[in-house]
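Example 9 (inverse folding). The structure is encoded as follows.
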């Protein structure tokens, strides 16, 4: 059975990663278009570097995978399983998941401004010794400036076609911790096969069609319930 899991900010919220749109989320403290848009980067790259450096430092110091991340990683040994995540954190990988597609980039990576295909994981010997902190002065081994390896608003989502291909092949699609309002990620639900089963785990689920089995709870509890439901149906 091929299972594709699409995760949003809610899967990492219980680990202490702030969500974006909920009360107290990141957009309450930072203007979204200043720190997460192509225009914001062009206007004030120093703020972009500061914002993502602070997020990296917090994630490295304070944030660990939660039970939902760990359970999803364990499910790789039980099913043909792939994860598509809107999250830029690396909690799925740290939990042990090996097949993770990041739609919106990766917080712990930067890339060359001049050659976007040159991508570096931080800390990286090719960069300065500042570790997780980058600035406009950070250079790669070729002397090029770097930027966060993040898909900003206003930029193409290069891996969306790969995500669609995975969803089209899925026997089961699981959506976890997302408001289903961020496109193109929210559109993945429209590519699922008519005979595929669809589960949606979220404490405040959006309105969905009757074909979707809604599990209205937080990710850690919801994934545990999902595993039981899948075992009973096999």
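The amino acid assigned to each position is listed next.
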């Amino acid at each position: 059975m091929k299972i594709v899991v699409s995760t949003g900010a809610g899967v990492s919220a219980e680990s202490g990663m702030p969500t974006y749109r909920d009360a107290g989320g990141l957009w309450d403290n930072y203007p979204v278009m200043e720190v997460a848009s192509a225009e914001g980067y062009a206007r004030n790259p120093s703020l972009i570097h500061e914002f993502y450096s602070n997020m990296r430092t917090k994630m490295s110091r304070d944030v660990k995978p939660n039970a939902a991340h760990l359970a999803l990683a364990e499910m790789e040994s039980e099913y043909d399983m792939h994860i598509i995540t809107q999250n830029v954190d690396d909690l799925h990988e740290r939990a042990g998941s090996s097949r993770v597609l990041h739609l919106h980039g990766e917080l712990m990576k930067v890339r060359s401004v001049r050659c976007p295909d040159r991508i570096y994981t931080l800390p990286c010997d090719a960069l300065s010794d500042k570790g997780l902190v980058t600035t406009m002065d950070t250079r790669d081994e070729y002397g090029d400036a770097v930027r966060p390896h993040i898909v900003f608003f206003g930029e193409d989502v290069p891996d969306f076609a790969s995500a669609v291909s995975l969803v089209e092949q899925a026997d089961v699609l699981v959506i976890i911790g997302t408001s289903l309002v961020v496109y193109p990620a929210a559109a993945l639900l429209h590519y699922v096969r008519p005979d595929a089963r669809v589960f949606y785990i979220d404490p405040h689920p959006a309105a969905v069609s009757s074909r979707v089995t809604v599990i209205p709870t937080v990710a850690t509890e919801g994934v545990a319930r999902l595993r039981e439901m899948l075992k009973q149906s096999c």
